[in-house]
Amino acid sequence: MIQIENLCKRYGKLQVLQQVSVTFNTGKVVSIIGPNGSGKTTLSKCILGMVLPDTGDIKLNGQSILKEHAYRSQIGYMPQIGRYPENMKIRQVFQMLQDMRPSVHPLDEDLLEQYKLPAMYDKHMGALSGGTKQKVSAALAFMFNPDILILDEPTAGLDPLSAEILKRKILLEKSKGKLILITSHIMSEIEEVADEVLCLVEGQVRFNETIQALKAQTQEDRLSRAVAKAMRLEEVL
Ligand SMILES: Nc1ncnc2c1ncn2[C@@H]1O[C@H](COP(=O)(O)OP(=O)(O)OP(=O)(O)O)[C@@H](O)[C@H]1O
């Protein structure tokens, strides 16, 4: 379980997160949505310890993670754009990360195999297409069997079959009791995999609901319309 309490972050004059308080429970897929620049990635990076909040707290299973490092091994992260040393081969990237985490056995090589990455092991990262780089990022995020996954626009750039493989993997890991946070703009995809939607607007929580509750409250069957209504945009539809 992750508890976020009154989280605030500013970059210069820009208040990116404002008093964000939210709880994420295990065994759930939560989609973090909101307009571009609303603070979704910043919130994810605060949980990952990549960005230090100005005030507020983040607790993982009751323990504050601020100024902690060890907890990071419990989180798998798939960034929006994976950056890897261009001259390293796929094989070397996987080997390097496995060498850094020798205690994890067995490794989860499910996505590695489904994406047929071993057949491309000798390709250099700098020579990969955007989608193949995404597959490497996805395989790495799940590989060390983390309890929590943070996936930033995970299917952007993936072909439909590869996106389907990833969605099935997300649901499989959820069924094992993992907590999965997904940043996405694709409502149909969110509807397929998520249980709950957290909506940020200008760094503040606009709503945080189960998909079912959101649809019931807005009296809309489609998530895209329910979200638009909940964001008070229904007049422009
Ligand atoms: N390191 C940084 N320094 C200065 N400003 C930053 C930094 N990182 C993010 N920002 C700003 O903070 C705001 C929120 O950015 P963030 O990446 O969290 O948004 P987002 O909701 O993930 O957006 P998107 O949907 O476009 O991915 C943006 O205005 C962005 O320009």
TrEMBL record:
<dbReference type="InterPro" id="IPR051782">
    <property type="entry name" value="ABC_Transporter_VariousFunc"/>
</dbReference>
<keyword id="KW-0547">Nucleotide-binding</keyword>
<feature type="domain" description="ABC transporter">
    <location>
        <begin position="2"/>
        <end position="227"/>
    </location>
</feature>
<dbReference type="GO" id="GO:0016887">
    <property type="term" value="F:ATP hydrolysis activity"/>
</dbReference>
<dbReference type="InterPro" id="IPR027417">
    <property type="entry name" value="P-loop_NTPase"/>
</dbReference>
<dbReference type="InterPro" id="IPR003593">
    <property type="entry name" value="AAA+_ATPase"/>
</dbReference>
<protein>
    <submittedName>
        <fullName>ATP-binding cassette domain-containing protein</fullName>
    </submittedName>
</protein>
<keyword id="KW-0813">Transport</keyword>
<keyword id="KW-0067">ATP-binding</keyword>
<dbReference type="Pfam" id="PF00005">
    <property type="entry name" value="ABC_tran"/>
</dbReference>
<dbReference type="InterPro" id="IPR003439">
    <property type="entry name" value="ABC_transporter-like_ATP-bd"/>
</dbReference>
<dbReference type="GO" id="GO:0005524">
    <property type="term" value="F:ATP binding"/>
</dbReference>
